[in-house]
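input
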Amino acid sequence: MFAPEDILKIMCIEGMGPRLFRTLIEQLKTPYAILHQLEEDTNNHLALPKQVFESVQSKRYILFYEHHIKWMQKHGAKYITYENPQYPDILKHIYDPPPILTYFGEWDPSDQNALAIIGTRHPDNYGKRITRELAQAAVDVNITLVSGLAKGIDSITHYTAVRAKKRTIAVMGTPLDIIYPAENSALARQISENGVVLSEFIVGHKTTPGCFVRRNRVISGLCRGVIVTQAGDTSGALATAYSANEQNREVFAVPGNVLTDHHKGCHRLIKSGAKLVETFEDVLDELPILKAKTATQTNLLLEAVEKHEVNESDKLILACLSRNPLHVDKILEKTQLSHGNLMSALLQLELKGYIQQLPGKFYIRKI
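output
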């Protein structure tokens, strides 16, 4: 196993990326040998990019390494290399995994079965609603949600998990010392309390537009599938979807209004073979490994019935509810219960965690 500090030092070299790192490892075998060879190669016989060569010869990479370590110690961040057992195994097997990840929070084994929900930074009401519904359905069955901490769809995805006190992972296109957009700083802190905020970039290194493109492969690489809930024809979310396709991940897209440009990206994905999504069950049908997780939730209801934790009124209510919101008046009509009995039963089912009340007296079933 290589020394983690040697791998970090290499990634502190300006211009060093995962592909060049892998090439050097293949040639020189160890990170220590890479550092030694780079420092001795004063004539650039290795034909390194100019930025990399100058960063090594000037010893600037050592200053970045020291700064990165001090910043982590000050702010409580950590880093792991691709050799660390905690490094997400699913990410390790993409074409160019980040050699290091710097992060806030803690990893959990359940993160191996995650879904990404991504999309435009400027969603309409339809996009906001379907994102919340799909994200809520995912966290209800304890599926980790991954997104990019951007405005719009990304933020809605993260907030849905945070409010439910469930796991979510934010993948940044900037070093950890620059939360972008700045308005999501509080959200990032909340995510780190029960999830992970991560970056492959070094504190102090210059952020370029290419950094946000690079992070897309990490978002998709951490997941079993990627759901695009709303995207225009030029949305950056499409790049993540294409990365997912290259990594043999499932790609899903939500259709929208064909009379506007706000959903053209999703329609293009569907035409290209992405799975059309109307409900969360459409996602589970394509991902057996995640569908197996929901079986546990179904078993909870069966166990509750066997233990007599639900009565006949409860069964009537649960039978007419699904993940699609239903107004209390419709529940009243379908169950034929009295108003008083219905409201009492709804309250008890909500306290048990079997159902959830939404604004406007709408209800959904959680198991």
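quick obs: The chain has a mean pLDDT of 91.
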